[in-house]
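Protocol step 4 of 6: structure prediction from sequence.
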Amino acid sequence: MLDTTIGVQPPLEFIPPAYDPRVRQVADWALPLVMRSRTTIRDVEATNVETLVNLYQQFQQGKVRLLLAFRHPSSKDPFCLGHLIWRLLPQTAQRMGVPLQRPIHAYFLYDRGIPLWLGNWAAWLFPRLGGTPIHRGKLDLIGLRSARDLFANGQFPLAAAPEGATNGHNEIVSPLEPGISQLGFWCVEDILRAGRSEQVLIVPIGLKYHYITPPWENLARILTGLEADTGLEPVANSGDPLQNGHLYKRLYRLGEYLLSLMENYYTRFFHVTLPNPPLSSTEVSTSVLSSEAFTARLNALLDAALTVAEEFFNLQAKGSVIDRCRRLEQAAWDCIYRDDLDLGAISLVERGLADRIAEEADLRVWHMRLVETFVAVTGQYVREKPSVERFADTTLLAWDMVCRIKGGNPFRRPKLGPQKALITIGEPISVSDRWEAYQGGRRNARQAVADLTQDLQTALEKMI
């Protein structure tokens, strides 16, 4: 069990980027060793890298400014992008006879919360690799100013994940956040104001993973463990899992059971009202919920969980599920990382009360973490294409949920087997060509940002 008790903390300070070429060189050297020891990636394959080589050459010639907008399905993605930029890009440039200035690198935008769960080493390493942090749940003027400056004036292109966070799905792109598109228009504005002529481009980069050997036995083992944790009686397997469907039936039964369990949890202890009554244990064992019914019940449950947290923080339920998650995370941080208290000067009683508020906030944001895990889950994902990758995505998300409920560490996921990463470089999208549409007031600007965001979403989805 994890000790989840947390007390009041000093405010989260901005961590300014402090790129150090020596650190980048060491990271480049260590990447293959770290990738092999810390991840299941054994091979990285990329297509259309020639496009990226030409764009980097134009960047270095002062003709364009680049933002690399990459898909973010997994926490393994940074290793793959490092391999792309530090290894595959210079190798392809050499093969093409294109001279690129060294070092070849990219700044990157990261969530300010990542060092909180990765540890102090990330707070040391990320800025020295050119990372700049952003608070996702509020208007972070300092973070935005830093990212804006790096995009318009930095030595290297800027990389960012427009999805904002991982969604655990190899073949689903979450709705993109508009911030990346807005950064693009700000970059155009800054360049024009400085009397410069570079074109501003956003480069969509697709990323997905493929198991080198289908890990059906490992998946069956994980399902058996999840069935034991939830009290479900295991079902014997035989034959090819794709042919007889046993594993799929077990996974769907587990999903229905967890759905029913959590429905009962929220209706009984938090007094929420759901559109459909929770299933009993007998009904779960005999139910045949359609994909649409499962998805509808899950969405209602996610809404209820977010409402429980929002009521504590006195927040209105506005925007998408992702928007609500971001606001809840920030509200919890505002209660834990206090910028309105001098922790060295307050009394012990004041400190005790502040600790209580921090503990309560941490407990309430737990509901948001559950929702965040399932933000892209539907009842159709595995059924419409029963590949081992989709099956693994869903099984690991169920493992995450059970792990959180048990009080474990969801970042220590089981490793199913060796994988190949597949990276696709898309055609660049010009932000400069859309500048005229952005002009003429807030309404035009909002529409131009929305259109660019949708076009980027479409480009990333086409690369799956």
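Step 5 (inspection) to follow. The first helix runs from residue 21 to 38.
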